[in-house]
Amino acid sequence: MTTRPVQAEKNLQRIDQASKDGIGQSPLRPDGTLKVKGEFAYSSDLWHEDMLWGTALRSPHPRANIRSVDVSAALAVPGVHAVLTHEDIPGAKFYGLEIADQPALAVDKVRYQGEPVALVAADHPETARRAAKRIVVDYEVLTPITTEQQCLDPETHGYVHEPHEYKARAHGNLCHEQRLVAGRGVTDEVRALADVVVAGEYEVGMQDQAFLGPESGLAVPAEDGGVDLYIATQWLHADRQQMAPVLALPEERIRLTLAGVGGAFGGREDLSMQIHACLLALHTRRPVKIVYSRDESFFGHVHRHPARMRYEHGATRDGKLVFADCRIVLDGGAYASTSAAVAGNAASLGHGPYVIPNVRMHALALYSNNPPCGAMRGFGAVQAAFGYESQMDRLAAALGMDPVELRQLNAVAQGDLMPTGQPIDAPAPVAELLQRAKDRPLPPPLDPSDQRALPGALSNTSHGEGIVRGVGYSVGIKNVGFSEGFDDYSTARVRLEVIGGEPVALVHTAAAEVGQGGITVHAQIARTELGVERVTIHPATTGIGSAGSTSASRQTYMTGGAVKLAAEAVREVLLDRGRRRYGWTHRDLTLTGGQVVSASAGVLAPLAELLGDEPVEQTRVHRHRPTAALDPETGQGFGHVQYSFCANRAVVDVDVELGLVRVVELTAVQDVGRALNPLAVVGQIHGGCTQALGLAVMEEIVLTDGKVRNASFTDYLIPTILDTPPIPVELLELPDPHAPYGLRGVGEAPTVSATPSIVAAIRQATGKALTRIPVRPEHLTDTP
Amino acid sequence: MEFLRPATWDEALVAMAEHPGALPVSGGTDVMVELNFDLRRPSAILDLNRVGELTEWSTDGSSVRLGAAVPYARIIDELSVPLPGLALAARTVGSPQIRNRGSVGGNLGAASPAGDAHPALLAAGRGVRVEAHSVRGVRLIPIDEFYLGVKRHCLAPDELIRAVRIPVADGPQQFSKVGTRNAMVIAVCAFALALHPADRTVGTGLGSAAPTPRRADLAEAYLADALAWESGDPPADGVVRRFGELVAAAADPIDDVRGTAAYRRHALAVLARRTLAWCWNDYREQLGRTA
Ligand SMILES: Cc1cc2nc3c(=O)[nH]c(=O)nc-3n(C[C@H](O)[C@H](O)[C@H](O)COP(=O)(O)OP(=O)(O)OC[C@H]3O[C@@H](n4cnc5c(N)ncnc54)[C@H](O)[C@@H]3O)c2cc1C
Fold first, then answer.
1. Which residue of A72, A183, A568, A665 could cross-link A358, Cys pair, CB 3.0 to 4.6 Å?
2. A66 to chain B, closest Cα gap in Å
């Protein structure tokens, strides 16, 4: 045995030191500076010699039969290399994330405005677009099915998917429904137990993810007859799984590499141009690039489900909840996408983070001729939170109670049961989160001499006239990871080798970095587990097993967990090597500061020496604990992996005469289990709150008879920096024993919870009921 | 598509005469959007950015001759005193990037009912003139005759805007714009008010409230008559209210994705009342100083 003679003191000092830029620290993201300086290469910047440009012709009608498609005029345009319709698809014509009900190109009918009907590849994007306009489609235009009432009466209004072509679990124009009954449900006897009952109907408009990098990618035909796709997506493997049957290729001949992603928020979970680019590339034997324009992007991805909700809550005189009766109707639009899981989430989380002995819940996802809806940050929990939190305020008013106290009185805590029967077996500090939000000092009163601080800001609509301040609170619950029995896993490969005399870790996963900072955290984990400074992140590819989606607040938990397992395995192999080589018998070995260190005996060997020219590489799969499906009728089941909670306090100034709102401050208090990168965590919470602010006061895709009226950033408004208030964040770090490092997914909880706090604050300022979001000036001024 | 880059104003006018259908581009903040969205396919584009005098302004003390391409950012910095209403309007345009490029000439060229310069130009007085040049000569178009319809103006196909002549403010001016976010927003509606103590008249301008920018004639006449110009006494509540009603009544708004007609009328009345209060306060202060 060769223990090096080194100064024990110095070594011990190094042992105690957290590894530089390891977990718990806030190294800056490697892509941050590039993005700010405009130097980051996004998928829209991809380029290949000889490449063609693809584009899609989309339906102008929300519902129509296609009598014929004549592509001859388009084909005749000089520079056009291919024009494809569904008839040119070599394999399956339908695909889908959960239910394969969506045609890659319209087959005989269109079910939403913007549905792709034909594809063009040309040597210039403008040529492709102009050629696409020459395709003649003969439509038999039908009256679209767009309202809840129309959807639920198919006898009168027809079917979005005819019964014989129906693929979802439910029936009629229903894509999915989930019921839930807890305790005694809601019966007349149960109602009679309540001293106070409040009921309300609530509506949530259709929010868009509004990512800034439009859908784009580059498909390159390969020698083996397969295709390589460089793509901005959230889940490489799910894309491939859906593409393979349509392209009639085995999965291994479809290779995906993640290209630079300009935001996602759920909007890249479904396929957009993936199949289209590959069809064109395989057909023309040329690389094909597709980049959506902004307006096409609005038609090219799913949106957040608009919701209509009815809630009834009963409580005792002293504020204890007795029952909740909820019906949540989500408009899933023309195709299933993730509607079933969204409805499942709405059902299992839709009563909020409260102990309610008796619950009846019915969540439905409809098929309609509106744009397809699917995943968006908060995933079914956002809509419901607006319902139940509005109800909490109503109930507090009816009881004459403080709204925060009412919430605290009924807040769930560790050990409580969810209405699904699932015990909450990790910290759930809901009451404390609210308390901390409430205890923070309030911002100073309005200073009307600063024009920027007023509602309307530099638009100069008020110099202080008509301004009323309001304060509102809310708390929300979100699940982390994939639920309801889904086999959710992630894969990571970690390699440790000597480069330039230094140990360097290489981390390879298929996790999509969409801006959330996953690559930063994965490197931090490798540093901590392997005691190295230098970590290289391999591009995300399908050359390794699936990482699952960058969604459901799950990637740090799931892929971070996989990186941890793989790094631990590398460490074990190395230590074994050391034991064999040097006869180490210590039980207290760690890898720290580039060395193998024994807590008692000090440094044993530098990693570089132990590694020599024999790198160590290990691949591991990380699964979270299993969940179970929810019973379709009772909603009972161990449905979720982990819960995450955020509480907010919103302070708003409202110009009550003009109906203009300025959010003054939006406090967020969240339990994150363990902040692996505190700066990134705060960034996620800031972003989540801002997106929630958008939903509260401005963001909506406006539809008339199934047609989108504002497919542009001119009229789909998202918050600017003048709309975004200071967002003080307080973090609690109560470790979840089931999660790697005790961490809790953070990305979505603030998006769930913050919207209702803002609306509550506006209500307090105006006295208006405000049952629909986004709140519009019309709602605040009683103008139709 | 041809791309023309005249080096001088005269060359620009000749190019316009020789290329009917050429689309002038100044800041490009409207033109480039339209080209990107394929809303226009002009046969030629005439880039005015090399014509230096378009970005200059001058004044003889009674009016400002504002070069068509002077960007909003400079109007804010350099012309807030002589043209306070227009400078306030300029502050509400788009974002810093847009204000660095966009111009009043471009706003007029686009003639959108939502253009923010228009209400301020209308309110600045009936003496505002759009100076239109062509190889055929110069026309001074009264601002009230400039707008013909939604995104339509009275320029001939070969005419270019050289400048806008705007009387120097002789009294307080205000501009307010309602949008559903606190910056970078197209007006749901906008209102400009100018008091003209010199001849005891009132100027108004309404934006996003009708197919064209327009003034509220009846409201102007009513208020000019009702104001206590001499004493500076605040207008009675009833006067303020009536003024708001007349402004709202002058609007002919539509329901669209940005707002409803009813809200627009409502908001215009509020803006009219508020801007009147602000202007009158300033006027009283001025009176006090001169008294
Ligand atoms: C993000 C964004 C935000 C915006 N926000 C606002 C806003 O808040 N308020 C607002 O009013 N506008 C807004 N606009 C529109 C635009 O910025 C303004 O209309 C601006 O005044 C246009 O000026 P420009 O110099 O860029 O015009 P250009 O785009 O160069 O031209 C506009 C039109 O005028 C014509 N034209 C230009 N110069 C002349 C000339 N000398 N003679 C004759 N015709 C000419 C052009 O042919 C074209 O038809 C916004 C635009 C963008 C892209």
1. A183
2. 26
Domain B173-290, CATH among 3.50.50.100, 3.90.226.10, 3.90.215.10, 3.30.390.50: 3.30.390.50
Q: How many cross-chain Cβ pairs, A to B, lie less than 8 Å apart? A: 102
Name the class of domain A43-142+214-261+268-300: alpha beta
Residue B118 contacts A, CB cutoff 8 Å: no
Ligand 1 centroid–CA A175 distance in Å is: 46
**Looking at ligand 1, which residue's alpha carbon is closest to its atom 15?**
B30
Alpha carbons B188 and A411: distance in angstroms, whole number: 42
Q: Which of A784, A663, A759, A773 is nearest to A394 (CA)?
A: A759
CA of B30 to the centre of ligand 1 (A): 4
DSSP 3-state assignment of A606?
strand
- The verdict on A200 touching B (C-beta cutoff 8 Å) is no
- Please state the domain extents for chain B: 173-290
Tell me if ipTM is over 0.85.
yes
Distance of alpha carbon A178 from alpha carbon A344, whole angstroms: 6
pLDDT digits (tens, 9 = 90+) for A415-428: 999 999 999 999 99
Partner residue facing B180 (CB), from A657, A709, A717? A717
Which residues does chain B have within 8 Å of residue A295's beta carbon, measured at their own beta carbons? 37
Backbone angles phi, psi at A359, to 5 degrees: -135, 140
Q: State the pTM of this model.
A: 0.96
Query: How many residues comprise chain A?
Result: 784
Place of tokens 């290289």: A536
B271 in contact with A, Cβ within 8 Å:
yes
Residue A627 DSSP one-character state: -
Quick check: B270 and A466 CB within 8 A?
Answer: yes
Residue A704 CB coordination number (10 Å): 9
Query: Which residues in chain B have Cβ-Cβ distances shorter than 8 Å to A456?
Result: 176-179, 182
Please list the rounded mean pLDDT of every run of 10 residues in chain A (784 residues). 34 48 95 95 97 98 98 98 98 96 98 98 97 98 98 96 83 93 97 98 98 98 98 98 98 98 98 98 98 97 98 98 98 97 98 98 98 98 98 98 98 98 98 98 96 95 98 98 96 98 97 96 98 97 98 97 98 97 95 96 96 98 97 96 98 98 98 97 98 98 98 96 97 98 98 98 98 98 96
Q: How far is the CA of B138 from the centre of ligand 1 (A)?
A: 22
Judge contact between A522 and A560, C-beta under 8 A.
yes
Judged by DSSP in three states, B289 sits in: helix
Distance CA A110, CA A411 (A): 46
- Residues of chain A within CATH 3.30.365.10 domain(s) are 5-40+489-623, 303-483+629-781
Q: Does domain A303-483+629-781 have CATH number 1.20.1110.10?
A: no
B213 close to ligand 1 (CB < 6 Angstrom): no
List chain A residues with CB under 8 Å of B176. Answer: 456, 459-461
Does residue B105's CB lie within 6 angstroms of at least one atom of ligand 1? yes
Boundaries of CATH 3.90.1170.50 in chain A?
43-142+214-261+268-300
Q: What is the CA radius of gyration of chain A?
A: 27
Scanning every residue of chain B, which has its alpha carbon at the shortest distance from the alpha carbon of A133?
B38
CB B29 near ligand 1, within 6 Å: yes
Residues in chain A with CB shorter than 8 Å from the CB of B271 are 461, 658
B263: which chain A residues are within 8 Å (Cβ-Cβ)?
659, 777-778, 781, 783
CA neighbor of A513 nearest in space, from A231, A300, A746, A271: A231
Q: Is A200:A368 a contact under the CB 8 Å cutoff?
A: no
pLDDT by residue (tens digit) across B80-116? 999 999 999 999 999 999 999 999 999 999 999 999 9
> Any idea which fold A5-40+489-623 has?
Aldehyde Oxidoreductase; domain 4 (3.30.365)
